[in-house]
Amino acid sequence: KAGVTQTPRYLIKTRGQQVTLSCSPISGHRSVSWYQQTPGQGLQFLFEYFSETQRNKGNFPGRFSGRQFSNSRSEMNVSTLELGDSALYLCASRTPGSSYEQYFGPGTRLTVT
Amino acid sequence: AQSVTQLDSQVPVFEEAPVELRCNYSSSVSVYLFWYVQYPNQGLQLLLKYLSGSTLVKGINGFEAEFNKSQTSFHLRKPSVHISDTAEYFCAVSDQGAQKLVFGQGTRLTINP
């Protein structure tokens, strides 16, 4: 079974621009979560989607948004990029049932200049 | 709210020596506990998890962890490490109702020959 895939793997954007990152979960997984990883703040939860609905949201400004499609693929969008948005953005999909085990993709490395 | 403290930011050990990576958590409710490993330029891979039952949990690559409720700890151990274990290790907690993981700051394990 294919793992979680994220595209693109690397991205360079300029301050003030917007960016869209994509995540395809493992087949059969309906929950997708996004995390931001930076050297200073570590791994922080952004949001989680299940069946096209946002179920949980972390403490990030409204510039960070996401959505999920009917095939469970998810996108996250960051508008008006700031230098501090430079990070590794990780997507994770979850197994059905109550195991709470999340499978992570390789991440998208976003650099804002 | 939950929080996770990984007591060591870096742990250097010699190859074939035992290692323990320490993790303490704080939560007012029952939790699930996880250890993830991150190799350079990769996403997170689940090593092991504690959901309920036996407090000694065995994972992949020879790792194990012990859940201690009274000390709110979930330390990761391996009796003999290999060069290939060089990576960053993250302890994470999730409450039994939420969909998000709260991570510690990570411990960088360096194996010296």
Name the biggest interface: A-B, 25 and 24 residues
Structural class assignment of chain B: mainly beta
Rg of Cα set of chain B:
13 Å
Please compute the radius of gyration of chain A using only Cα atoms. Answer: 13 Å
Structural write-up:
The complex is a heterodimer of chains A (113) and B (113). With 113 residues, chain A is mainly β. Chain A has strands at 5-7, 10-13, 19-24, 31-38, 42-50, 53-57, 64-68, 74-78, 87-94, 102-104, 108-112. In chain A, strands 2, 4, 5, 6, 9, 10 and 11 form a seven-stranded mixed sheet that branches. In chain A, strands 1-3-8-7 form a four-stranded antiparallel sheet, with no helix packed on it. In chain A, a hairpin with a 7-residue loop joins β9 (87-94) and β10 (102-104). Chain A starts with a strand and ends with a strand. The relative contact order of chain A is 0.33. In chain B, β7 (56-58) and β8 form a beta hairpin. Chain B has strands spanning 3-6, 10-14, 19-21, 23-26, 31-38, 44-50, 56-58, 64-68, 73-78, 87-95, 102-103, 107-112. At the A-B interface, β4, β5, β9 and β10 of A face β5, β6, β10 and β11 of B.
In short:
The complex is a heterodimer of chains A (113) and B (113). Chain A is an all-beta fold and 113 residues long.
Task: From the structure above, extract its key features.
heterodimer; A: 113 residues; mainly beta; seven-stranded mixed sheet; four-stranded antiparallel sheet; B: 113 residues; six-stranded mixed sheet; 12 strands; 0% helix; globular
